[in-house]
Small ribosomal subunit protein uS17
Amino acid sequence: MAVKEKVGIVVSDKMQKTVVVAVENRTSHPKYGKIVVKTTKFKAHDEEDKTREGDRVKIRETRPLSRTKRWEVVEVLTSSSEA
């Protein structure tokens, strides 16, 4: 089975070694055709605590690390300080 990877924006970095990443999923409505944006939040493990709020990151699915944490930060694509 392939490892799932997603790209999203860090919306919270208040926890130790954990960030909350919001991932947008854009789909077309089956009947009306309008583009519908659905946002899902994932808790991801950040070992070095290097990501900040507003960063665009890539996350990868991993084994359960806690009750709600099943993802890990792979890389920081763009930093909030650069934007």
Remarks:
- The chain has a mean pLDDT of 95.
- The beta strands are 5-15, 18-28, 35-45, 56-61, 69-78.
- The two ends are 36 Å apart (CA to CA).
- The CA atoms of residues 42 and 71 lie 7 Å apart.
